[in-house]
Amino acid sequence: MKKGHKDKKFVKVAYYKGGSKALESFILKHLQYPQAAFDKHIEGTIHAKYDINNRGKVIKVKLYNSLGYGCDEETIRLIKLLEFEVPKSRGLRLTFHKEIHIHFRMPKTATPIIEQPVIEQTTEMPNFNLQYNIVKPTTEEKPEDKNDNTYNYTVSI
């Protein structure tokens, strides 16, 4: 009779689905550089600690340094968006504590915001007529079959 395999860890820790690479790509995708920090050319790194509840949601964020100009608020917003996978731990409701560093670096090339032209919408339907003819090519006319193979369509909208 074989013994069951025991887990080496007593408490299983919450993790981000996809690992650290997925976490990094999520942060890069959702990080919005604050306009005030962009205008003042503010760069730096914010060190933050956050708590994760038993459902994988971030419930508390604490910043250990500040950059100002909206970077702190953006860091809190970004961390609150994170969702973690929490494995079953013998029915215990645990709170996990994690740390993260969010880097604010000026983009190398500034992409100007291009305003899209406003297209006015009207409730009137445009009026146009469409006519076309379909003519079936005739190879040889047989005296028995004298059908006219021409079709005409007219569409008015």
Could you give me the name of the CATH homologous superfamily of the domain at 19-104? TonB
CATH architecture of the domain at 19-104: 2-Layer Sandwich
Shape: elongated
SSE succession:
HHEEHEEE
Give the helix/strand class.
alpha+beta
Helix content: 10-25%
Number of helices: 3
Given this structure, which CATH class of the domain at 19-104 is correct?
Alpha Beta
The N- to C-terminal Cα distance equals 82 Å
Mean pLDDT: 82
Key words describing this protein structure:
single chain, TolA/TonB C-terminal domain, 157 residues, three-stranded antiparallel β-sheet, alpha+beta, 3 helices, two-stranded antiparallel sheet
Short description:
By secondary structure, the chain is an alpha+beta fold. It is built from three helices and five strands; from the N terminus they run ααββαβββ.
